[in-house]
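Q: Got a minute? One more chain.
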Amino acid sequence: MEQLKLFDEELMYRYIETYARNTEAENTIAALPFAKKMHAGQWRKGPEKIPYIVHPLSIACHALALGFCQDELIATILLHDVCEDCRDESGNPIPSEVLPVDDIVKEAVLLLTKPAAEYEGWEETYYRGIAGNRLAHITEVLDRCNNLSTMSASFSGEKMKKYVLASKEYVLPLLEEMEQEYGDDCYAAVFLLRYKMMGLLRTFERLL
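A: Always. Here it is, folded:
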């Protein structure tokens, strides 16, 4: 039986591109092909050989479906893993300075880039920095929701346990802060994200 394809990267790409051109979203128009180029040849972890670009594309589509349509936000989502996971021809990480977007997006992407070497207390510093930036804040919550939805295909049981604990300790508070800080502008989106994330977390806690 042919395996069900959950996401179609070409369809998602065209959808985001059409949105960006129709709304003259200049950051998104520039970020979309750049992200595709940077993630070319990369794959999501797991046996299914899913192109990595599916990850930022699906988060961007999720954001648009929830009503998060700000140009800078969609561009941040598309680029959020580039500085952390991509390398130039010399093997060096991609610096935020070369991202083809405005400084607002560059700053958010930099906040979302985890340190190359972990140190004691890095998570607290990382998530506090994200909480202070609206673009990074929303992107991180959407990113975690996407990873929780797909991690069963690639994470070991032990890694899933750690991911669930980290989600409860750091990301659920970010979700609550979204509701407090951004109010009615994102109440419906926060409701849906909480509904999905809490359901996933409770399921994993029962199974692991």
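A: DSSP finds ten helices and no strands in the chain.
Q: Perfect, thanks.
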